[in-house]
Amino acid sequence: MDTRDGGVPPDLRGVQEAVDAWIGQFEEGYWPPHVNLARLTEEVGELARLINHRFGPKAKKPEEDDQELGEELADILFVLVAIANEQGIDLTEAFDGVLTKYRRRDSDRWERKADSPGGAED
Amino acid sequence: MDTRDGGVPPDLRGVQEAVDAWIGQFEEGYWPPHVNLARLTEEVGELARLINHRFGPKAKKPEEDDQELGEELADILFVLVAIANEQGIDLTEAFDGVLTKYRRRDSDRWERKADSPGGAED
Amino acid sequence: MDTRDGGVPPDLRGVQEAVDAWIGQFEEGYWPPHVNLARLTEEVGELARLINHRFGPKAKKPEEDDQELGEELADILFVLVAIANEQGIDLTEAFDGVLTKYRRRDSDRWERKADSPGGAED
Amino acid sequence: MDTRDGGVPPDLRGVQEAVDAWIGQFEEGYWPPHVNLARLTEEVGELARLINHRFGPKAKKPEEDDQELGEELADILFVLVAIANEQGIDLTEAFDGVLTKYRRRDSDRWERKADSPGGAED
User: Fold this and answer.
1) Sign of the Cα pseudo-torsion (C31, C33, C39, C44, in order)
2) Which residue in C64, C90, D6, D79 has the most C-beta neighbors within 10 A?
3) Cβ-based contacts of C49 with chain B (< 8 Å)
């Protein structure tokens, strides 16, 4: 993880544990992958509806607060984490792997800022 | 946040900062919501392909490790966080809100385990 | 169906039969709904990738022909029709129902053209 | 198009014209690709919700008629056709191309029925 800007390193354990604590209360437990995927598709659809509503051709509510958008994103995150938990996947590790992949694959894909530390190093 | 099981409380700041550090290096910066949404749709599609491949009617590779699945989930997470960052949304707060919403709305939706602390308290 | 402009009335029987003829050749037959849905999600993801590629921030190929876009749309249509067939749904009837629904619900939702016949009739 | 079973050949002109007649009434006209895609994502999400509701872990309504499912499929079809129309794509031709592609690519992918005419010919 690149923490050159002094950021907090990514840690998704707490999020995975929170989802597990919630789901673990119920007899049903985790859903199988296809059912979770359908739920994810449903939640992404709700985000799409909201994005068209706020940023589409007939957008009318620029003053609306961000609460609803945040809620849709968090709903998606919940299902995503449920899929990871059900499959025994460590998201912190997976996310780190993706950052590393992007660093290798895309470092020259976009125009780097002149003052980016990576400009010289990568 | 319910930490009765001694779990780490959800904290997504590090993830949001990691995405911001990566995208912040480039002149292009964040994409607008519709473009990010299309990217999210693309990544969810890749997860769907993988889930059908591993758990669908012709699934053939139970022995395959979970690396690819973790990578797809993390790709989705990356775009999700990019949307939140571009919109100035605090995902930790939004995720906490969703957990609270679930606690209120769904606590009687599923059959609670006999030994669940929430069984008596909620 | 409104054929006031002399158009061909919607008829999706041929499309449903073509998909049925194709799938009917194989022992596997139709997939169950969740598997078909995952396939639909995958195909919509491929359309999303293409739309970002052609119309996104870094779009580079305005001269590219429409063949690939048509293929993605037709791939989605194929899965959509497979879901309808598997569930015994008559798409011609369902599509007619949706046109009727739109006519009732949305006829005043958008600004009607001055010369639209519906402007006076509906 | 394979009409060996006496089926109606696929013809999507009427469907494209019906969508064009509907949208053509309004000043707004067609939406741009990203907005249409978001709408498609939203509609696929509604189908996903319904599929989980009818065929998921807690499915409760086997007796429910197919009307709602047909409506969701037709909603998706409407947006799909709107994208094709906006881009000037002939869906009949594109669908024919996909059937041809499947015939070439997948004819040996699945187990063919013993009595399938294609078993000997293809």
Assistant:
1) positive
2) D79
3) 38, 42, 45
